[in-house]
Design goal:
The chain is mainly alpha-helical. The protein contains 27 helices and 2 strands. It is globular and about 85 Å long. 47% of the residues are buried.
Amino acid sequence: MRAAGRSVRARLRDRVAASDPGLLRLTAGLRTVGAIALTLAVLALLRADVHLLVAAAMAAMVATFAIREKQLGAQAVTLALGLPVALASVSLGAVLNARLYAGDVFFVVLIFCAVYGRRFGDRGTALGLIGFQVYFLSLFVGAEVSALPTLCGAITLAFCSSALLRFAVVPATPAGVLLRLRLAFRARLAQLVSAQLDLLDAGAEEMDKALDAVREGTAALHETAMMIQARLEEGTPDESAARLVQRRIADAEIAAERLGLLLLTARSAERADTLTLHLPGAPAPSVGQLAVPDEATATLRRDLQALRALVLRAGSGDTGTALAHVRNRLLGYRDEENLPSAPAAVQDVFRGIGEAARSVLGLRIALDGPQDESDDTPATARSREELDAEDAAIDSAEEPSEEEETGLRRPTTRAAVQVAVGSALAIVGGELLSTQRWYWAVLTCWIVFLNTASTGEILVKGYRRLLGTVFGVVAGIVLAGLVGKHTVTAFALVLVLIFAMFYVAPLSYTLMSFFVTAMLGLLYTLLHTYSLDVLVLRVEETALGAACGVIAAALVLPVRTDRRTNELLGTVLERLAEVTEAAVGQLSGGPADELLDKARDLDQALADLRAATQPLTHPVTPLRARRHTARYVVALLETCAYHARTLAATAELLPTHPSIAADPRLRGAAGRTVRNIETIAARVADEHAAARIETGPSIASLLGSDAGTPRYGRITDRVLRHLERLDEAVTGLARPLGVPVTEPRA
């Protein structure tokens, strides 16, 4: 019974960890709600009026969500500096509230300074956010000079409550967050293996659903790997430990994705080279049942289940003989003599399972330290020796510094000017709509500029905020009618809505806007200013603020979506060329390079491009041809990134892996691919550039390979396949980007 209870708890823990990696959303929601609840409890004991309760609740929320640093010491300094900023901001708000023109001018200046402060990193961003939001708070509650002492006391209490929750009740150290992210990576890896198991058994009518699950699981695993990468520096004791974890996470991610591709190849009529080209809604490849004996299929199913069990138990401290037996059997598939009798495509799946088991072993050693080796088979011992040799080769390197833009070309300066102009327009238009609640338009204008970099991104964000606000107004009407004058019930619902707002914020901006607006309906009820007209005005002010933001972004120092995406596309191509050239150079016998760092830089550049193309790929965009082109280009780049990332991981194994040896012919054979990438990048940077890409013989023919080459000789099939698919994908980029192709001579 106890074992069953532990099993249920473990499954529940894994599901929670996978749904919220690092528990970052849960932590943010609990911390914010806890700070607000503590502040309200203290003020309720002091019998404060409802206006002070609302102001303190909003201050506690701001003091909690504004702090973004990862180290606790830096968070404490920013919170301490934020209190005087908040007190000064609310004092100026109370003084200038009755002075129409002076207050408007100061508000615009404050907005400019708050946005400009982002150039000073997380602390500058936090202080600017606190200054703006607390000034907005003073307008919302109608702060007066006579009430400043009690209002400042309430804000001070709110900051103290936020500090207590942050540092004592719900602490989140970098090491703790990284540990939870590692658990999430393990849970998502197990979920991906489960999806791959479903792919193995899926019939023709279930193939679309199974393939979608594998694709989504692969994307989720990659997302978690990127989150771990962002936390390694702060969450590990030294550079060497960070690089070790980075390598093992990358190995596991690539091995899992490759296993999915091998399974799809075994099920498909054609070889699958990437999952990313299968866009949502695209038809699945033609499939059939595995053309192998039932015994081999049963063995494959059993080993996938064993791999999933190995993943789930890798971080549990379980070192029993049963686990060792499973591990040894799966690692044995890395040797040709242990492969079951089956067609080549199915044998490749068994090899993929062996490589995935090796990556799980490496991840466990990197995270948990040395393991019991008493039950090791020769295959397992050999895998450990390879991992030890790789670990010993880890070295550190300095990150190259990037040149920073200056003047109005600096993104923070340009954004500050744009927001200031947009806010000035929002103030004028907002006061024409309402002399009392014009500040809602300014708030929307401010928000649509956060984390956006082009006119198209601002337009999409404004649309999502307006959509969430409209539905939130309906919810606010319903909740206000249900709550009536019950203050305690209203505040309890406010806390629930705030938690939901923070929990869904990274997932859906529309949902976050919905919860914010529904919460405001309750706050208006508490302030006895609720009416249908007020909520309708909220929608009007939101639409006005979004429109002012779009107008400012389009007319003042504009960054067009095309320009932004072209810049990011050029960056992706530059990173792709760097990774490919460095990986091929190392596979050709050149000096070792920081390949995993370069691969992660490529992943980050691709993530930035994917976010920037959202205005082009959004369902409401009227330009259908551009939407399909943008999706196709991003999918091809994801294909290129997968193959380049795998080449980099293979090159990292070069000094220690027995089946991979340097071959100088690779440099010349892959030179065409690198030149083509650089040619496309030049054409993207200058559409008038006279650039043509080259096509010609396959990579294998350039190497002089023939049918008699051993399957796993000096240059493995894996390296050749990734090089050829990368070359084909790069050539495929030419057509949608308008780059001419030089056909090979007959």
